[in-house]
Amino acid sequence: MTDQTTTPAAAPVVDPAHAQPFSNLEDYRAAIERTQQAAAAYYTGSGLVMDDADYDALVARIAATEAAHPQWQATDSPTQVVAGLGGDVEHRAPMLSLDNCFDEDSLRTWAARLDNTLGRPVTAYTVEPKLDGLAVAATYRAGRLVQLATRGNGRTGENVTGQARLLTGLPLRLSEPVDIEVRGEVYMTDADYDAGNELRLAHGGQPFANPRSGAAGSLRAQRAYDVPMSFCAYGGYLLSGPQPDTHSAAIASLGVLGFATTAATTAGLVVCGSVDEVVAAVTNLGTRRGELGFAIDGVVVKADLAADQAQAGESSRAPRWGTAFKFPPDTRMTELLDIVVQVGRTGVITPVAVLKPVQVGGVIVKSATLHNFDDLQRRDVRVGDTVFVRRAGEVIPEITGAHLEDRPAHAVPFTPPTACPRCGGDIDRSQKRWRCDRGRACGQAELLRYFTSRDCMDIEGLGPKILDMLVERSLVTDAADLYDLDAVTLASLDRLGDVSASSLVAAIAASKTRPLSRVFTALGIEMTGRSLSRRIARHFGTMDAILAAAAEDWVRVDGIGTGRATSIVVEIAEIRPLIDRLAERGVNMTEPGSPALSTSDRASELPLRRADGSPMTVVVTGSVPGLSRNESNEAVETLGGKSSGSVSRKTDLVVVGEGAGSKADEDAELGVTVMPAERFAELLAAHRNGDQAAVDAVISQTFAAAG
Ligand code: IVH
Predict the structure, then answer these.
(1) Pick from 2, 60, 227, 282: CA 20 to 30 A from residue 471's CA?
(2) 416 in Cβ contact with 395 (< 8 Å)
(3) Cα–Cα distance between 632 and 619 in angstroms, integer?
(4) Is the CB of residue 599 below 6 angstroms from any atom belonging to ligand 1?
């Protein structure tokens, strides 16, 4: 629906190597002042004045100026001091910033410089997410939180201890009575952000411009309602006694004390032995950026050994032992040129923003969703406004709000449509998402074009003109009718001779063998594009499984949250007759190669089946090496089991991995069979490799041990 032009080779928004120096001292000083104002707004979360990319670009120009004119160097330049506002709390050790790199070359240059400083290669590196929030320091005495302070200007920060209770991941009491200072990021997960925006709107406020400024504002504000936020530790030191030898070990012990840590996020912490491994880990995290469940603005690379860090040291602004590899920003500001109303294939009517093109998250964005009319009116976004555009992962870019200070005097509020802009019919306003009363019938021609298109059923020769003729003559009213067409009927259409009529019939018939992923895509269900449809088809394996799935089954597909799950279930129920008619006409309804299919194919031979062939109920607690939670559950199903979230007397097997909670003890009490996660991983590998002897060995040992 949105008109984004992807430009994989797009130049970075910020390219410090090519930054233009200022030609006179006055402009240089003015630029420093602008960064200071922007930083103050940034750290308080109040009315942002500049987006991250413009800020970084301005700092790059300041740095280029200082290189060209060292005599102008100001002591309060953002290249010399940590930006931000100070407060009453003096930090025990300064809270520094990190230097940035924006591409592989500058990352390798940083690593080479570090080797040089040490006089030998760095022993090991860590790669972890750069959370997009604000830094805080938490002090604990005898395991109790006594103070939480913002980074402020790096030397002094604000006391925000009263807000600590709002932070998931920051325990008020630790598992051991230690004296420790822990440093980390306060941020909003996607779920925090959605819940926080709902709360704000319910209290008559404006939604947050982005998760970062939401976290910054909420940490410092005293409000009538509590906005949920999260904390993630990325460092810490015991106030006395010996420290851990490595950063990775320090993070692991923070996890044991009860903190959420970078290592425990979906992004994880990777220890790398070489720069090549670092580059691979950074690239990997970049590709997963949109699926993490929280915003990151880059990756932090650090020397892992405490000894390496101590030897490398730090400047007044940033350590030499670490660097931030910055991704293109996911939120930018740009001008809203127009608001147009689009009617989707299924009759959903949406306001869409037409934007002055802007690079967000590495692609040029020219349009973005304004969600729905209710939301648009509450956010009071107007044509001519400077708006915040956010692009997170695969999600369609969205307008999160307007920068009210920049509103032109003539800007008028938007007037929503009173009739369907496509067919002139009435609008159903009973839901948040308005819809043409005629529903899918309103968009039938468009739906058919989509169904036959190259990425869907790929029916060669069935172009828009022929489709329009077929619809006009009522020969086709939905996609299933296509499969009833014969050569005689087609030959009767203007412009279509006998030969092409029969080759068209053959092309239509050939499309019956397309895999389920294409059939599902072709149905044009709202919010399911090609790649999500592939995941859906792989996950369920058959259309029957899709039709039987409830909302709670849908959320187990990667990339589907509860909102999307509910709307998919509703739409599938609506188009069930069409699906049945397609199946009756012989359209394939299975996905070759789906792990779900192999489960049903050879059900009785699978390792996690009971003697009567029914699936064992399996609970996975803690993490299985190499698998996400979702993949662990998928693996249970691949092995023939049924995965469940809690242990009961019906549970046949509990797989216990690292980080397992109290469930393992309950299992022992209930007399349930337990399998270590490593054994489970072995079982899965053996099954995948077709090594039946190894599968049998794991199963017999596990259940024999249980007696
Ligand atoms: S280490 C000496 N690790 O990025 C500074 N910082 O641009 C050591 N940040 O002020 C910081 N995620 O607020 C570190 N995994 C991470 C981080 C991280 C986010 C923030 C932090 C810092 C800023 C520097």
Answers:
(1) 2
(2) no
(3) 10
(4) no
Query: In this structure, are residues 293 and 266 in contact, taking their beta carbons and an 8 Å threshold?
Result: yes
What are the distances in angstroms from CA 576 to CA 52, 160, 569, 591? 47, 54, 10, 19
Distance, CA 68 to ligand 1 centroid (Å)? 29
> Are residues 594 and 540 in contact, defined by beta-carbon separation less than 8 angstroms?
yes
Secondary structure class of 64 (helix, strand, coil) = helix
Q: What is the pLDDT of residues 132-179, one digit of tens each?
A: 999 999 999 999 999 999 998 899 999 999 889 999 999 999 999 999
Closest-lying ligand 1 atom to the alpha carbon of residue 97: 24
CA of 188 to the centre of ligand 1 (A): 15
Cα of 206 vs its chain's centroid, Å:
23
- Is residue 397 within 8 Å of 359, Cβ to Cβ? no
Ligand 1 centroid distance, CA of 138 (Å)? 15
As given in the structure block, the two tokens for residue 61 are 């120009």
* Ligand 1 close to Cβ of residue 98 (< 6 A): yes
Distance 150 CA to ligand 1 centre (A): 13
**Is there an atom of ligand 1 within 6 Å of 294 CB?**
no
CA distance 556 to 544: 17
The response to whether residue 212 sits with its C-beta less than 6 Å from ligand 1 reads no
Cα 534 from Cα 329, distance rounded (Å): 28
C-alpha distances in Å from residue 586, one per residue of 512, 596, 614? 6, 21, 30
- Residue 410, number of CB atoms within 10 A of its CB: 8
Assess contact for 669 and 646: CB atoms under 8 A.
Answer: no
- Reading the block at residue 60, the tokens are 């790059």
200 half-sphere exposure, CB direction, 13 A CA radius:
22
Cα→Cα distances 53→215, 297, 334, Å: 19, 11, 12
Q: Is 130 a catalytic residue?
A: yes
Which of 234, 262, 289 most suits a substitution to test ligand 1, by most atoms within 8 Å of the C-beta? 234
Name the packing angle between helices 25-44 and 52-68 (round to 10°).
150
| Beta carbon of 130 within 6 Å of any ligand 1 atom | yes
Count of other CB atoms within 10 angstroms of residue 393: 15
What amino acid occupies position 398?
Answer: E
pLDDT digits (tens, 9 = 90+) for 438-495: 988 898 888 999 999 988 999 999 988 899 889 889 899 899 999 999 999 998 887 7
